[in-house]
Design a protein that fits this description.
It is a single chain. The chain is of the alpha/beta class. The chain has one domain: Rossmann fold (3-Layer(aba) Sandwich). Strands 2-3-1-4-5 form a 5-stranded parallel β-sheet. The protein is globular. The two termini are 22 Å apart.
Length: 173
């Protein structure tokens, strides 16, 4: 199967959703490079606007305030093209991400995520494993509404290739 190019998707954005640690940023950078798209990480975009980390925003303001910033990100990029976007884990739970482009859920097991985030103190919602597991289960049903679901437990290069294969057969309405 040929590698898709921008023309396959009419420059539609690719939006990666999933729980924290599912590989959205890692896979997103690989996809953007392969397709010659621009990579955007919604959390990094928000952090750059406020000059604060997500953890600092949660502590200094509130989660609700942060979700409002995610809505600003969606509004700012809904009319853009040729982007690969890695959303924050909660963005699709609090905001409609469909206007951004084709949503793809990186379906990653909690055990794999736990291993990936074991030493990452920057994740404000992963302080308590039991609470994180409850949140993971709650968000899964929302993530599953994505246009495509891809196994995020695989190595990032394999996930990227799976997404490219899916997108090569994707037809715009």
């Amino acid at each position: 199967m040929p590698t898709p190019t921008k023309s396959h998707f009419s420059k539609e954005n690719i939006v990666l959703i999933g729980f924290m640690g599912s590989g959205k940023s890692t896979v997103g950078k690989l996809l953007a490079s392969e397709l010659n798209y621009t990579f955007l990480d919604s959390d990094a975009w928000i952090e750059s606007k406020l000059n604060m980390s997500v953890k600092e925003i949660f502590a200094a303001r509130s989660e609700s305030y942060f979700r409002g910033l995610e809505k600003m990100f969606i509004d700012a990029h809904s009319n853009d093209h040729s982007l690969v976007i890695a959303t924050g884990g909660g963005m699709p739970c609090f905001n409609d991400t469909k206007p951004l482009g084709v949503n793809i859920y990186l379906d990653t097991s909690f055990e794999v995520i736990k291993e990936r985030l074991r030493s990452d103190a920057s994740r404000p919602l992963f302080k308590n494993e039991a609470i994180a597991l409850e949140l993971f289960k709650k968000r899964d049903s929302i993530y599953r509404k994505a246009k495509f679901i891809v196994d995020g437990n695989l190595e990032p290069l394999v996930v990227k290739d799976c997404i490219l294969k899916l997108l090569s057969s994707y037809k715009l309405p």
